[in-house]
């Protein structure tokens, strides 16, 4: 059974993504989230005989699902992007997952703005389903912009870095 904190984290991740509907089942418990604009519908049920469990789960979900300040980091970044140079290459995410700029929380980032990279240089990790996938630069050049924050949920095809090709 999911804990309240895990459900809140799922709601937060869904809220930050482009996903409109999410469904999860585990040991007879179901969690279904639907997102339409800023209105969230959350349904949670567990076919256990104890009626206390669904009530305990539904109240925090309803509180966590109330419209909150929507994340504005992505639109702001899109507005403040530099003028596109034809020599800039976008390194995009090959999958949906969580972006990590370093191999571990206490390690330094793989790359920073101004770093030189080659085609096979690892620039970040995208975690999907507990698998850590190293993302390579694909081109030779210099990192001019990092478009996502460490720990941010990224979508398939979302630009992660801008590289000025050498």
UniProtKB/TrEMBL annotation:
Biased composition (Low complexity): 64-75
Keyword terms: Biotin, Fatty acid biosynthesis, Fatty acid metabolism, Lipid biosynthesis, Lipid metabolism
Record-linked InterPro entries: AcCoA_biotinCC, Biotin_Carboxyl_Carrier/Decarb, Biotin_lipoyl, Single_hybrid_motif
Entry GO CC: acetyl-CoA carboxylase complex
Location of region: Disordered: 64-83
A GO molecular-function descriptor: acetyl-CoA carboxylase activity
Boundaries of every Lipoyl-binding domain copy: 88-164
One biological process term in Gene Ontology: fatty acid biosynthetic process
Pfam assignment, any one: Biotin_lipoyl
ATP-binding found in the keyword field: no
Pathway entry: Lipid metabolism; fatty acid biosynthesis
Record keyword Lipid metabolism present: yes
Function recorded in the entry: This protein is a component of the acetyl coenzyme A carboxylase complex; first, biotin carboxylase catalyzes the carboxylation of the carrier protein and then the transcarboxylase transfers the carboxyl group to form malonyl-CoA.
Protein name: Biotin carboxyl carrier protein of acetyl-CoA carboxylase
